[in-house]
Design a protein that fits this description.
ATP binding; alpha+beta; Alpha-Beta Plaits; ion transport; about 50% helix; seven-stranded mixed sheet
Length: about 750
């Protein structure tokens, strides 16, 4: 049996940290999958009964980090926001202190570059040695107080043989500081031409990286905005009706069956079914649809939505983790914590990246020490420190998860829930889209257009009996037949027996009579002759309408047909998919003539008709072989096998039907334009990830050689440790800021 847990991981600061935690968890016998996310400081783990949560936490601690299980998401989100706020306050204080202490060091060391006579003034007024001692004291305080965070994390990681970005900063800053201390206190230990100090490099490195950390923390706090907004929709209290009295109570005290009163302007506390009242409810925060939905008796309401006009009373049907909103939050969290296939490659690279950088820094030092004729030690130190600082892999670790978090959050806001973050990548590799018909391309609410009673059967008796059987079915055609009977003021009774026959129809007994209602295949399977089928009914197939038969006690009693209107958004969606080079198909249990009529009207490429649910799976498999990766769009319940067999399954989960385990993507609205928006969001997110990864890798690939000094022999160009620190800090901020652009990207194209 598989178990899932979300761990909050503390102490991760870069991609190499993610790689080590990921390796520690996935290395455990019994862990089926582990996805570690730097942007949310979390790990989603699926594991077998061989392990316990304590085993997982122990593995994380063994890798040098701390972890604890997230039991209460609300509490964890509050704690995370408080921690983020506290971290930003701490970073701000440390940054200001570091900047104030660094400024005089920088002025004393670099002032002559701005004012050429400044160095002469320092020599005459303070003296060079005094200037160096002032810089030593101030820089030491910078490293010991605001810079202590790098040592607390970096040095233990170094001793564990698992260096991270903190290790690189600690080594680089200490190397520059240590060399400068020797030059100040024991100058005779160094060659005369190498007696120089680099206190300003050490202090500025710490200040700039703290500045980058502060900006990174501030930007990072916005990546979880979508989850926070969803959580803010959860009501804390509700008005419960008990013994005729209305009392305000805590939502946690409510249970299924409780009657809740909600007034205009209030949020609906939990999922339920309207028992009385009439109102319009704004469900935009759930479905993405801006138009308020009319609600009256027996209609479903969803917790978190806003009651706009009238007063409603409803019976609670779901509480706690069973509510639609709780499921949405869980889906978004899972998607945000998931790992794209591309991230595995990044993790494998970055796991060895920091040790490789340290080796490059050592080689840089040795090459310059032996190659430079004058000031060899100075050149060796400066270039080695620049390599250590420029190569911190923070941006690599943030490149993918920040884009996933913001992208899936944006999807949730428009009613597209990515249950699997990997679907974002898979969508871009798809070659075709396969649609179910009823309820997907059509409204799923057919109406009876024609009814013909056969022979001596009484029309009202046949219709009443057929409607009584179909009242037990959830099929849209059954609902249409029941409504047709009620419109004629016929009373539907309780059938003696009922059985649904998948893909064919239904059978049952009413008042001692045996009825079969369904396709011609159902009639033939049960030996019911269709010889006396009315001529008018025979012509229905020619115009694309499927005849549906009613037989009583083995004889054909009536024939009827229906019309299921095509959704207004369907035609535009098919047109856009074709414009993007995607093939389209429709798979349905309806008759071929009906299916072809719908397909022709919409411009769909291929039609597979007259199939049962297992036939849909066969059709999906065949089209996968012919086209490549395919997407299946269905209603998420009777299309579950087809959804699961497609590379990406889109389930239209309107209202309370969101708990669809077989789908990768759940569409909260039945408006098909969101399918195209999901494609556009996928494209934008993957483009964003590629931009981030290019920046992160290209930045390191291009600047490590520059920092090592390869351009100096040809162009006299060296990269100072200060510039390296600034560039490194800005790279992480760039990656997060670029990811945040997904919040406003245009998805209508």
């Amino acid at each position: 049996m598989s178990n899932s847990v979300r761990l909050s991981v503390e102490g991760m600061s870069c991609a190499s940290c993610v790689g080590r935690v990921d390796k520690a968890l996935n290395g455990l016998d019994g862990v089926e999958d582990a996805s570690v996310n730097l942007a949310s400081d979390s790990a989603e783990v699926t594991y077998s009964d061989k392990l316990s949560v304590d085993d997982l936490i122990k593995a994380v601690k063994g890798a040098g980090y701390d972890a604890h299980e997230v039991l209460d998401r609300d509490k964890q989100m509050r704690e995370q926001r408080e921690q983020q706020a506290q971290e930003m306050r701490t970073l701000k204080r440390q940054l200001w202190l570091s900047a104030l202490l660094t400024l005089p060091v920088f002025i004393l060391a670099m002032g002559n570059h701005v004012v050429p006579v400044f160095s002469e003034w320092v020599h005459h007024s303070l003296g060079l040695q005094t200037s160096w001692w002032i810089q030593l004291v101030l820089t030491t305080v910078v490293l010991a107080v605001p810079g202590a965070r790098f040592y607390k994390l970096g040095i233990p990681a170094l001793f564990r043989g698992a260096p991270d970005m903190n290790s690189l900063v600690a080594l680089g800053a200490t190397a520059a500081w240590g060399y400068s201390v020797v030059a100040t206190v024991f100058p005779t230990w160094l060659p005369s031409e190498s007696v120089n100090v680099y206190f300003e490099a050490s202090a500025v490195i710490v200040t700039l990286i703290l500045a980058g950390r502060f900006m990174e923390a501030r930007a990072k706090s916005h990546t979880s905005d979508a989850i926070q907004r969803l959580m803010s929709l959860q009501s804390k209290t509700a008005r419960v009706v008990r013994d005729g009295n209305v009392t305000e109570v805590d939502v946690a005290e409510l249970g299924k069956g409780d009657e809740i009163e909600v007034r205009p302007g209030e949020r609906i506390a939990l999922d339920g079914e309207v028992s009385s009242g009439d109102s319009y409810v704004n469900e935009a925060m759930i479905t993405g649809e801006p138009e308020p939905v009319h609600k009256q008796k027996e209609d479903k309401v969803v917790g978190g939505t806003l009651n706009e006009k009238g007063t409603l009373r409803f019976k609670v049907t779901a509480t706690g983790e069973g509510t639609v909103l709780a499921q949405i939050i869980r889906m978004v969290e899972q998607a945000q914590g998931s790992k794209l296939p591309i991230q595995d490659t990044v993790n494998r690279i970055t796991l060895w990246f920091v040790p490789a950088v340290m080796l490059v820094a050592l080689l840089t030092f040795l090459v310059w020490y032996f190659a430079a004729s004058e000031s060899a030690l100075t050149f060796a130190l400066v270039n080695a420190v620049a390599v250590l600082i420029i190569a911190c892999p923070c941006a690599m670790g943030l490149a993918t998860p920040t884009s996933i978090m913001v992208g899936t959050g944006r999807g949730a806001e428009m009613g597209v829930l990515f249950r699997q973050g990997s679907a974002l990548q898979a969508l871009q590799q798809s070659k075709g889209v396969i649609f179910d018909k009823t309820g997907t391309l059509t409204e799923g609410k057919p109406t009876i257009t024609d009814w013909i009673t056969v022979g001596d059967f009484d029309e009202k008796e046949v219709l009443t009996s057929a409607a009584s059987i179909e009242a037990k079915s959830e099929h849209p055609t059954a609902e249409a037949l029941v409504n047709y009977a009620k419109d004629q003021n016929l009373k539907v009774s309780e059938p003696d027996t009922f059985e649904a026959i998948s893909g064919l129809g239904a059978t049952g007994k009413v008042d001692g009579k045996t009825l079969y209602i369904g396709t011609s295949e159902l009639m033939q399977d049960n030996g019911i002759a269709l010889d006396n089928e009315p001529d008018d009914a025979k012509g229905w197939s020619e115009i694309g309408r499927t005849p549906i038969y009613v037989a009583i006690d083995g004889k054909l009693a009536a024939v009827f047909t229906q019309d299921d209107p095509i959704k207004p958004s369907a035609k535009e969606l098919i047109k856009r998919l074709h414009a993007n080079g995607l093939k389209t198909a429709m798979v349905t249990g309806d008759a071929e003539s009906t299916a072809k009529r719908i397909a022709k009207e919409l411009g769909i490429d291929e039609v597979v008709a007259n199939v049962k649910p297992d036939g849909k799976v066969d059709a999906v498999k065949r089209l996968k072989k012919e086209w490549g990766q395919v997407i299946f769009v269905g209603d998420g319940i009777n299309d579950a096998p087809a959804l699961a067999s497609a590379d990406v399954g889109f389930a239209i989960g309107t209202g309370t039907d969101v708990a669809i385990e077989s789908a990768d993507v759940v569409l909260m609205s039945d408006n098909l334009t969101v399918v195209q928006q999901a494609f556009a969001l996928s494209e934008a997110t993957m483009r964003n990830i590629r931009q981030n990864l290019f920046w992160a890798f290209a930045y390191n690939t291009a600047l490590i050689p520059v920092a090592a000094g390869v351009l100096y022999p040809f162009f006299g160009i060296l990269l100072s440790p200060m510039l390296a620190a600034g560039a490194m800090a800005l790279s992480s901020v760039f990656v997060i800021t670029n990811a945040l652009r997904l919040k406003t990207v245009n998805l209508e194209k």
